[in-house]
Design a protein that fits this description.
This protein is α/β, with parallel strands linked by helices. It is built from 21 helices and 27 strands. The strands form 5 sheets. It has an 8-stranded antiparallel β-sheet with strand order 3-2-4-1-10-9-11-15, with helices on one face. It has a 7-stranded antiparallel β-sheet with strand order 5-6-7-8-12-13-14. A 5-stranded parallel β-sheet has the order 19-18-20-21-22, with helices on both faces. The two termini are 23 Å apart. 6-O-phosphono-alpha-D-glucopyranose binds next to helix 10.
Length: 630
């Protein structure tokens, strides 16, 4: 299991996907909280919980694994009264999705209940300190640590909850959006945020808190967006009291909420796919959080620490995966072989499981899967285990079947991916591959320290470079308009950009139903060149790396046959851009990282072509997000 008891939790990272709702006012809180959680369901989650403070000053906490409806069923015969409460949908980051780990968390005394989005990076050291001071923990979460840290400050400093939260957050490294309810204070909520969004709705004699405006829409139009490192006291009959954690007073800026529900869920984008494409700078940063350490010239992958030796001395590392995850694995194979000099094979899980592969206990098999539920990948894991190999996982969904079936693994932490066509999951998987390659290279000594540092620093800059790519992709829509009616499209790239060609073609066929093929550029002469004519657009990933001149020759060959050329080029490119009909620039980067940038405009190209053809982008025909059958 990824998250076995042995697991080192220190390297998990923050995602913003959990949902927070809180209420204080003149109405019964429970129906408002449940309705709010349901409106946040689009974010994806694995458990839900609610805490309500009733008139008798009892703080009732109810939690359920699964859906909000499971929580509702659970509380059917319980006391759900109270005009103040907090509620949460959790997407697991620390420990498995179960009731114990679900929020809200109660402090040791039972006086405060807290919900939290984000991650407390230094929670292990805080937990150890608190344990010395007599605190005990029921869950594996960082949230329970934060709850008790606040209580500890409150008790030892003799301050009120508002002040205790402010002081406690000065000891916290990481990201958070929190809401707290306290016994004896039925008219007050305390909230704070850093790096994780939070909005407060101001109603008539009532207040709402939520992780985005979705639960608030229709209840009030007056909202205040809390800034990073601000703590808020929300008290009935009083103005919002906001301070920074550095103890500086701040004035609430009340804004009018104008969005409708649908546009908020999709963060203003028309489709989840585009929202997820635009999340990629954040996701890649989150995937690296707590793992990539440029200051120490190292990478730490806590989830697989106890298997590093086996990886280093493996006869082969064998990736098994399907679809987009297979493409990410292919990028990974280039990275690991080049940097760590370990032999890597990449297998379609569906083929691997039936072709009686030669796998021995000296091999390490790594299953790569966004959903963690793909039937063929699970079957491949079982086969590899039967053959005695160590099986690791690279997976997005915590507690999923694949994460449970593997010996250990690395979570990608891309958050829930709702669009059926995978986008941010791919970039997060490739980011994990890069970190794995660098870690193995470090252990094996296959890179000089200075060289590794350059690679680590460059990886650290990738989120900004993806953002640049997004910011400069406006014209991709024009390219889409030009080619939306073609019947075929060819994608060509070499080395690490060959998987990018495959992924670009897959995106296009998945969502626009245009036939598209990805090929290693040099293979064009062995077949696809016969297809080239004036109606055939060819996408070249022509970044300025080792095979650049050879790709330029391929471009010339297509041009000579009247084919149309869309070229993804590096910023400083001179040659390719002269020959192409359309050019898409990406920032200069280390060649092995170019898939992290070059894939992004191809996702956008496929997206616009599909939209212009009137296709259902988020739910393409015949495809499923999670293929749990053979
Ligand atoms: C389906 C999805 C693809 C995904 C593939 C593998 O075909 O539509 O987007 O790449 O399954 O899924 P996994 O969850 O194992 O990565």
């Amino acid at each position: 299991m990824f998250f076995s008891k042995k697991c080192n939790f220190a390297f998990l990272i923050f995602i913003t996907m959990c949902g927070i709702v809180a209420y204080v006012g003149h109405q019964e809180a429970y129906p408002i909280l449940i309705e709010g959680l349901k409106r946040l369901e689009y974010r994806g989650y694995d458990s839900a919980g609610v805490a309500l403070l009733n008139k008798a000053d009892q703080l009732n906490v109810y939690k359920a694994k699964g859906k909000v409806s499971d929580l509702e069923a659970k509380v059917a015969d319980k006391d759900i009264s109270g005009h103040i409460g907090i509620a949460h949908t959790r997407w697991a980051t620390h420990g498995e999705p179960n009731e114990t780990n679900a929020h809200p968390h109660l402090s040791k005394s039972g006086n405060i209940a807290l919900i939290h989005n984000g991650i407390i990076e230094n929670y292990l050291s805080l937990r150890k300190e608190l344990e010395k001071r007599g605190f005990q923990f029921k869950s594996s979460t960082d949230t329970e640590v934060l709850t008790n840290l606040i209580e500890d400050v409150q008790q030892s400093e003799h301050v009120d909850l508002f002040e205790a939260v402010r002081i406690a957050l000065n000891h916290v490294i990481g990201a958070y959006a929190i809401a707290i309810v306290e016994k004896g204070h039925p008219d007050q909520l305390i909230a704070a945020r850093k790096g994780s969004p939070m909005v407060i709705g101001i109603g008539d004699g009532e207040y709402f808190i939520a992780s985005d405006a979705t639960p608030i829409v229709g209840r009030t139009q007056k909202v205040v967006y809390i800034e990073d490192e601000q703590v808020v006291r929300i008290k009935l009959g009083e103005e919002l009291h906001i301070k920074t954690i550095q103890d500086v007073e701040a004035i609430p800026y009340v804004q009018e909420l104008k969005m409708n529900l649908d546009s908020i869920e999709k963060a203003g984008f028309d489709h989840f796919m585009m929202k997820e494409i635009y999340e990629q700078p954040t996701i890649v940063r989150d995937t690296m959080r707590g793992r990539l350490h440029p200051e120490a010239n190292t990478v730490r992958l806590g989830g697989i620490i106890q298997y590093e030796k086996q990886l280093l001395y493996a006869d082969n590392i064998v990736f098994v995966a399907c679809g987009t995850s297979w493409h990410a694995s292919l990028v990974g194979s280039y990275m690991i072989e080049k940097l760590a000099k370990i032999r890597v094979k990449v297998e379609y899980a569906s083929e691997f499981r039936y072709r009686d592969p030669v796998v021995t206990p000296h091999d390490v098999v790594i299953a790569v899967s966004q959903s963690g539920e793909t039937a063929d990948t699970l079957a491949a894991i079982n086969l590899a285990k039967e053959k005695g190999a160590i099986v690791l996982g690279i997976c997005n969904v915590i507690g999923s079947s694949i994460s449970r079936a593997t010996d250990a693994g690395i979570y990608t932490h891309a958050g829930p991916e709702i669009g059926v066509a995978s986008t941010k999951a791919f970039t997060s998987q490739v980011t994990v591959m890069a970190m794995l390659a660098l870690r193995l290279a470090e252990l094996k000594g296959t890179m000089k320290d200075e060289e590794r540092l350059e690679f680590i620093k460059e990886l650290d800059s990738i989120p900004e470079k993806i953002q640049w790519t997004l910011d400069h992709s406006g014209h991709v829509k024009d390219i889409a308009a030009k080619y939306k009616d073609v019947r075929n499209m060819l994608y060509l790239g070499r080395l690490q950009n060959y998987p990018v060609a495959l992924e670009g073609a897959l995106k296009l066929k998945e969502i626009s139903y245009i036939h598209a093929e990805g090929y290693p550029a040099a293979e064009m002469k062995h077949g696809p060149i016969a297809l080239i004519d004036k109606d055939m657009p060819v996408v070249f990933i022509a970044t300025n790396h080792s095979t650049y001149e050879k790709v330029i020759s391929n471009i010339q060959e297509v041009k000579a046959r009247d084919g149309k050329i869309i070229a993804i080029v590096s910023q400083k490119d001179v040659l390719a851009r002269k020959m192409a009909d359309y050019v898409i620039e990406i920032p200069e980067t280390e060649c092995l990282y170019s898939p992290l940038l070059a894939t992004v405009p191809l996702q956008i190209l496929a997206y616009y072509i599909a939209v212009m053809r009137g296709c259902n982008v988020d739910q393409p025909r015949n495809l499923a997000k999670s293929v749990t059958v053979e």
